[in-house]
Request: fold
Amino acid sequence: MSDQTIVQELQKFQADATVYYQKLRHYHWHVTGKQFFALHAKFEGYYDHWAELVDEIAERILTIGGKALPTLKEILAKAELKEDPEFPKAEEMVLRITKDLEHIVKEARRIKAIAEEHGDAGTVNMMDELCDVEYKNLWMLHSFLKG
Reply:
């Protein structure tokens, strides 16, 4: 089964997921301040999780007959999310990853709808599972930001 529409959407999703993963690593390395211990560990947990998701997304692309994006150049060209060359304060880091995750969840829901239209149950299931986990992560991030 090869549906170029879904392949292209998943490639963009792979790109955003990869940029998000790298941003989490960047923040893990550079977080400072009173929240250091909590956020250093939390960012590590998130980037470990997103490393697995990037792999799952790439493998889904291959499963449906496409090619996963092989280079950082291609990833950055297709990503809507942007790298962060700055070193923001801890709370700003959380705000930025929250906004990025909101974008990712919105895109996952959009891809799910496209996959449903094309009868791609595997991609539908992947996006459902991703959203279930990330809605909870968004709740926790929003709760942190209210503090």
Residues 4-146 form a domain with the Ferritin fold (CATH 1.20.1260.10).
